[in-house]
Write a structure and sequence with these properties.
This protein has 69 residues and is of the alpha+beta class. The chain has one domain. Helices cover 26% and strands 23% of the residues. It is built from 1 helix and 4 strands. The strands form 2 sheets. A two-stranded antiparallel sheet has the order 1-4. It is flat, with a radius of gyration of 15 Å. The model has no long low-confidence stretch (mean pLDDT 88).
Length: 69
């Protein structure tokens, strides 16, 4: 596929409108993801095509298979 443009994913905005929760989320997200990784297995159900818009979005969603370890 095509390379993803660097500006294609801006989850917290930028500049003067930067999300106020950015710092907290950057601390919390790795902790939560690590807890999930320890307890569950995640797998992609099918190949996902990305659609560049204001941000990059998966076409038709991104179905995952989740199973408890």
């Amino acid at each position: 596929g095509r390379p993803i443009p660097r500006t294609g994913y801006v989850p917290f905005g930028a500049g003067p409108r930067l999300c106020i929760g950015r710092g907290m989320s950057l601390v919390e997200a790795p902790i939560i993801l690590d807890h999930l990784r320890e307890r569950y297995r995640f797998g992609i159900v099918r190949e996902v095509r990305m659609k560049p818009e204001v941000t990059i979005r998966p076409v038709g969603g991104m179905p995952l298979r989740v199973s408890r370890l």
